Amino acid sequence: MAPTNFATMPFLLRPLALLALIHAASATFTRGDTLIWNNTGTNFNDADSWTNANLLLTSHAPTFTDTVSFDVVGVTDPVVTASSATAVAGITFGTFGSGYTLSSATSGGGYTSQLAIGTGGIDANNVSGTNTISASLVLNMDESITQAVGGQLDITGPVVLGGTGGTTFTIGSPGGGVINFTPSSVELAGDLTIVLKDAIVTLPGVNLLNAVGTSASLTITGGGYMTITAGGNYDGGTTITDASLIVTNTSGSATGTGAVVVNGGGTLAGTGIISGSVTINGTDGVSDVGRIIGGSNGVGTLTLQSNLTFSGTLPGLLVQINGNTSGQLAIGGTLDLSNPIDQITFTGTPDGTTTYVLATYTSRTGTFDIVNYLPSGYELVYGANELDLVPIPEPATWLGAGLAVVAIIYSLHRRFLHRL
């Protein structure tokens, strides 16, 4: 397969060429040779830069059947550049392979070539040091990214995720090393499930790949944490199960235009904005309950532009109190608490005098059935358009007010008698 030169291709045709590359990779990715970087040169596509692991075979430039390996003691040429569009079956950083930066060719501040990686994924076995991949990546198959304990892998370039028919992308491994998955942009080429395992994942706005022309959904699971920092336009909906999604966008919608469903063990939190309806489901009998948290550590507001519904068994709102502030939900539609078993839980200690606004809404049905750890001296007050945590006046305050009223009545009574 001849390499595609994106630098000479009209801009509008690049997404179509990328899809062709994805399709070819999806159809033909198989394990072939293992090519070892020989620490000479900087061109990823140069055959002279690689040694075939089977020394009986002549080496060649990487192709979609090959796994490429960086495992050389003492990196002399740390920056390796894919000069043209390339597809490989997988990338491995060996025990001694650290300190590399794998990039794509750029021009005018943008990337001009893509690097597609097959089912072999990215397997970083270095036990110290950091490798960085700032290439324009295509990860459109069922694949994983792992990092050994002691090492670190940073992925910072633009990424295309997902493929036709739905794909699963696993990042991290239990007890593994540090993976900072912070791509500069993310585009979905189809429905995608991300399995999070001990990885730090921060995504900018998630958008549909321009040439796809169909909807794409995002499912987050696996027990880890993901942050989305900007608005996106994917439209197939978002599902969170046994994982946490933190949204911090200041414009647009972090979860695109579709609905958001939080299942057992899932958490939705942050200070960002979500345009679609949000449903918090309860426990599934195996996982913990689904829950929503306004703000972060008792500060800030999570904005939901549509309805918020609690459903199932014990779905929850967790309220974090921090001094004279608390996390808050700003709901642009209905707060639906008609579910027979939903709950609100408090953490932190209020200051004793502040009235905390927990949620605002245009309308409400029902109330929370279970209140956990209600702060002493406070009560929940359900208003027409907001839910508040309000301090209860001390008995002495009530007594003082009552005596004042009695004194006023007595004084008026004496004045009346004096006039007689």
Short key terms for the protein model shown above:
420 residues; 19-stranded mixed beta sheet; 2 helices; mainly beta; 2 domains; 10% helix; disordered N terminus; 40% strand; 14-stranded mixed beta sheet
Low-confidence stretches: 1-8, 11-16, 22-30
Large-scale geometry: elongated
Q: How many discrete structural domains? A: 2
Distance between the termini: 113 Å
Using the CA coordinates, give the radius of gyration.
28 Å
Oligomer: single chain
Please report the number of helical segments: 2
Helix-strand makeup class: mainly beta
Provide the residue-averaged pLDDT: 86
Largest sheet: 19 strands, mixed
Number of strands: 41
Topology:
Elements: H1 14-28, E1 34-37, E2 50-52, E3 67-70, E4 79-82, E5 86-93, E6 101-104, E7 106-107, E8 110-111, E9 115-124, E10 130-133, E11 137-139, E12 143-147, E13 152-155, E14 159-161, E15 167-171, E16 178-181, E17 186-188, E18 192-196, E19 200-203, E20 206-208, E21 218-221, E22 225-228, E23 238-240, E24 244-247, E25 260-262, E26 267-270, E27 273-274, E28 278-281, E29 291-294, E30 301-304, E31 308-311, E32 316-322, E33 325-326, E34 328-331, E35 334-337, E36 343-347, E37 356-360, E38 363-366, E39 370-372, E40 378-382, E41 386-391, H2 395-419
Structural summary, described in words:
The protein is mostly beta strands and 420 residues long. It has two domains: 214 residues, no CATH class; 204 residues, no CATH class. The chain is 10% helix and 40% strand. It is built from two helices and 41 strands. It has a 19-stranded mixed sheet that branches. Strands 4, 6, 10, 13, 16, 19, 22, 24, 26, 29, 32, 33, 36 and 39 form a 14-stranded mixed sheet that branches. Strands 27-30-34-37-41-40 form a six-stranded mixed sheet, with no helix packed on it. A hairpin with a 2-residue loop joins strand 32 and strand 33. The longest helix is centred in the last third of the chain and has 25 residues. The N and C termini lie far apart (113 Å).
